Structure formats: C-alpha cells, structure tokens
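Let us walk through a complete example step by step. Step one is to write down the protein sequence. Step two is to encode the small molecule, NAP, as a SMILES string so that its atoms and bonds are unambiguous. Step three, shown after the inputs, is the structure prediction itself.
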Amino acid sequence: MAATPAPAVPTIALNNGVEIPQLGFGVYQIPPDQTAEATRTALDIGYRHIDTAQMYGNEAEVGQAVRESGIDRSEIFVTSKLNNNRLERDDILRSFDQGLSDMGFDYLDLFLIHWPLPAASDYVARWKALEEIYASGRAKAIGVSNFQPHHLRNLFGASDVRPAVNQVEIHPFLVQDELRAFDADHEIVTEAWSPIGQGQVLGDPVISRIAQQLGRSPAQVTLRWHIQRGDVIFPKSSSKDRMAENFALFDFELDQEQMTAITALDRAGRIGPDPDQFNWIPS
Ligand SMILES: NC(=O)c1ccc[n+]([C@@H]2O[C@H](COP(=O)([O-])OP(=O)(O)OC[C@H]3O[C@@H](n4cnc5c(N)ncnc54)[C@H](OP(=O)(O)O)[C@@H]3O)[C@@H](O)[C@H]2O)c1
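Step three: the predicted structure of the complex.
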C-alpha cells in the first residue's frame, strides 16, 4: 500500500545537526503482539518518529512495522533506550547490536541511557559506551533520559560529547521549567515523556475550559501547549482515532493567556519515579 504523505510536523535540529520531528509516537505499554499493528497505524496517519526502549520489549515489532511500511528508512526517526540492567561496556555494546538486529536496521536515529540509577551504577561509564556507538555511526545521535542537572554536569566534566536530548517526565502537573532551561542553556533538546500525564491532566477544568474555547479536545490542547513550548513529544495511544487526534496539532494555536494558565497548573505532580531515588535494575 502506498504510504500516506506526512503532514508538516516541524523538526528541531539537535546539537549535532540531526533533525528530529517534534511530534512522534510512543510505544511504552503497548504489548509486543500489538506493537507492529499500532506502529503501522501511526505511520499511516503520518507519524515519522517512534519512541521505543529495550525495556518495553517491543523493539523488534517497531522495526518490523518500519521495514514493512514502504516508507524509506531515512524518513522515519527511531529512538531506543538502554535497559537498566546493561551496566558494563561490553554488555551495552552487545545489547545495542542485538536491538539493531531485532529491528532489522543498520542504525538508530537516537539511543538514550534510560535512567541515571545514581546509587546503583556509574552512568558516566555507561555514557562512554554510548559514545563508542555514536563514533561507529550506528546511532546518529545519543542522549539521556531522566537526568537531573547534576547528573548532566558530571557527564560534561568527563566527556566531549554532549547529550543531544534529555527525555524527562513533563506535563501540565509537572512543568519542569528549571530543568528545561538548564537543558536549553547546554544545547540539549528536552523531550517530554507522558505528555498528557497518562490521561491524568485531561479532566482538569482549566484544560477543559481552553478546549471548549478552541473547539479542540483536552489532549490536543495539552499536546499543543508542549509544541509551543518547544519540547519534543510522543504521546502513546492504542486507538487509531486517538492517534489521529494527537497528530492534529498544527492548525490551531494557544494564546499567551491559555499558555500561562496551563503552565500555572504545575503542582510537582510526578507520575513516574524520582530520578534521584530510582535505582531499579531488572533481573
Ligand atoms: N524515558 C522514560 O522513562 C519514559 C517513561 C514513560 C514514557 N516514556 C515515553 O513517552 C511515551 C508517552 O508516555 P506515556 O505512554 O507514559 O503517557 P501519555 O502519552 O501521556 O498517555 C498515554 C495514555 O493516555 C491515553 N490517551 C492517549 N491519547 C489520548 C487522547 N487523545 N484522549 C484520551 N486519552 C488518550 C492512552 O490510552 P489509549 O492507549 O487507550 O488511547 C494512555 O492510557 C511512552 O509511550 C514512551 O515512549 C518514556
């Protein structure tokens, strides 16, 4: 089947010149046996950026959908992340190669350290292994996820390669403006995970009021807020209609009052773990 032409999703230049689509599709919690179908549907809608991870157990199915889509590999941006149980250099390189082979790719667009695990691992040593992967050309860019400024500073002191992105939890109940400013000051693009707070922000009265004003859904208003702040997002949905809804963000705008009102919903409302406390290593 011929691929649908991608609607105009803006791209953002990473600090090494690689362009990343600002809107993608996340596959966390999509079971492996449903991931190829979900990814195919997302690609049909027009998504050209997929966010997976070794930990999600569905890299192979993402790869399958991309390969079978009929869309040139170079037109689809694929991110994966290092599992928390890959701590040693050789194991990191092996697991990366295994992921590529499972996906049927010869490169990834972006590869991230998933969590810093500050009390359980040497994340600087793990970063050095990612640098080797980057130098080999098998990842076009490398970055981190769930890093706080003090974790990033430790990398800056030990490495010449700046992370291209920092993927962290951000939504209207956890706006993370200090961390975003730190990233921006160091030429690191911020990616916002759980951009609609896994659905938790959608019933908020302020978001509902703005959705009514604009004739858009609460999810579209929230995702558009991220887009106008300049972060990269990849909402997850298992429904074709909601995937399409989440993709329709580029024909309306929030005004300054609406942007400010959503940012004011901040309440330190983390859904996920605190990166400074999280040291979980799966067996
Ligand atoms: N780096 C990390 O540590 C980390 C952690 C978490 C997530 N992530 C990444 O971020 C991506 C997105 O985060 P997330 O999946 O946690 O949360 P999310 O995208 O904020 O929310 C997903 C939830 O919202 C529902 N939903 C989606 N679109 C909707 C809409 N238009 N209206 C109403 N409900 C809607 C989905 O249900 P349905 O599926 O039923 O539509 C699902 O329950 C993940 O897939 C993953 O790629 C990264």
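Step four is interpretation. The domain at 11-197+229-237 is CATH 3.20.20.100 (TIM Barrel).
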